[in-house]
From TrEMBL:
Protein name, UniProt field: Gypsy retrotransposon integrase-like protein 1
Biased composition (Acidic residues): 613-624
Biased composition (Basic and acidic residues): 660-669
Gene3D superfamilies assigned to the protein according to its UniProt record, in alphabetical order: 1.10.340.70, Ribonuclease H-like superfamily/Ribonuclease H
Entries under SUPFAM superfamilies matching the protein: Ribonuclease H-like
A Pfam short name: Integrase_H2C2
Domain of life: Eukaryota
Amino acid sequence: MESLTPPPPLSLSGNLAENWRKWEQRLNLYFVASGLTDKSEERKIAVMLHCVGEDALEIYNALNIQYADAQAKKMEEVLTAFRQYCAPRKNTVFERHQFWAHKHNEEAGIDKFVTELRLRARDCEFGESEDLMLRDKIVFSIADHRLRERLLSTADLPLHKAIDICRAKEAATMQARATAPNSSTEEQLVHAGHRSHLQTRHGAEANVLPLAVAEGLPMPLNMQRTDTVLVAYGGARIQPKGVVKLLVQARRKQAQLYFFVTDASDTPLLGRQACVQLDLVRRVEALARSAPATKQQLLQQYSSVFEGLGGSITQLVQAASETDEEMLLLKDLHTGGWPDRRKSVPPRAQPYWSVRHSLYIDDGLVMVNKRIVVPKSLRAEVLQQLHTAHQGIQRSLAHARAIMYWPGLSNDVRAMVDSCSSCQEQLPSNQREPLLPHPVPDAPWQRIAADIFELQGRPFLLITDYYSKFPEVLQLPDKTAGSVIARFKAVFSRHGVPFTLIADHLLMGRVLRSNLPISNAALQPSTPVNVREGLARCQWRQKESYDKTAAPLLPFRTGERVRMETAQGWQPASIVRAREEPRSYDIITPSGATYRRNRKHLRPDRAARHDDQQDDIEAPDSDTEQGATPVEAPEPGANAPESQSAPCTRSGRRIKPPVRLKDYDTASD
């Protein structure tokens, strides 16, 4: 008994409950066969944990089993803990659904099908009607209509009789045909050293051997006469010449198979049963994914299906209008009548003074010219729904003005679109700024520019004089610094050393001068008169033409949050400092990367600026009490004359300057 092989480790993949059931059964058989049933509980637990495997042992360590007596542990307590861990929560409705949805595989046989049904019925709680349910399931699952008619025609059919009838039909069928899957592959037939290619038909019901192949075999065949008629796909009937028995070898596997010899085919075929015998196909146990057993699991697994508005937004507005103080005040004014003067209207309702004649109540909703007045508590949500498609300001305004109303609606829509990060990332490029021409030098070869270009795969050095526009083009053997310096020396030896050299990616950014003493007058040759003035006029005309479609952009301050134009859109960044070069800034991104960018590729971050702005031009503060006149309270330490000198409109409302002009003096003389 000591040589008995213990059960293999518990498999934690696939159907865990079924794996545990089989493993526990093997463990019990091993205990009985090895004589461990009468051993101590401690030893049985040790043997079990030794056999269960490494992964399951870790689960045991994490289960934290509460023993009835810590000094006298029992194996049944360990088994119970593993059963609870491996067995999912029972759902009778789901188990019965699985029972009735289970399909009968005719190739496996009726006995295996009944065994599978009994295992599934164990969790269905059928009780005394289990045999009746099994009988009905067998009758409903039979694909052979003749067999099903025979079962249905039998009165008071018991379960055991239904199984016997199916067994008899199965035995008769197995003697007449062989079954197989639908895919096809190529294998080799080996008979007496002769090789022939066979096509495996996993859905064919017989093995077929062409007459030409049979006659080409080196040994005589003992062909037997047969009355079997083969039916091909599509209904064509084939009468075989006979049946032969051959030894077939495929992948080191041999089997004695019967072949129907026919002249209607030119390729040998292996049927399903032959493929199974030669291990060309295998049955793979499918993994079953358990459906959600409880409502909470269903909601958690498919949470996206149950999320959303949950109801009509109009119903939400109607419910909010019943509790919103502003909406209730408008209803009272509409019912009791509006005062004759605006100053007599409560502050909360003053913004609606201009639309008082168009205001009415419809089914609990406050309406203005067929537009719903949205309560303040729902305005943010309505704006988010309005901007779901990320349309621009004009389209959003047109849509909003057609269906809803509240004071300051236009400003709120603009602020909402401006503060949308996704919209800012997809904004078009900035308008170009006015041209900044280079200053015209006083003489030739004082200011030159250089760059490297390629033509037909060969590099060239281009040097141009800013005064005469004279170009120098020199071919380079390569783009190394030594080759470029050699060409510069050759040019400087012919024309002299310039005051300023402007080159792309200049290393030191300084003026290159000769170390020989020389005066400016000596460097200035005699030139035609009025050339510099003509160049200046030409550059001015170019600038004037260019600036017709250009506009200056406001500068940025250090620390200001901006958007940087990239290939992926406008990404957030911050200004580090303004460089000495015009329109050039050092910026830093949220990831910590620093860049140098021109003002054209930067724009203000409206989303960040919107957080610091509060528009109160159209609507007063919501915390103003009804019936009270809003008065600006003076700040501590502020004198009365300064408070009274604040600019106001004719109606007495204080004018608050825009935040973007806070650094400028807007006082009129």
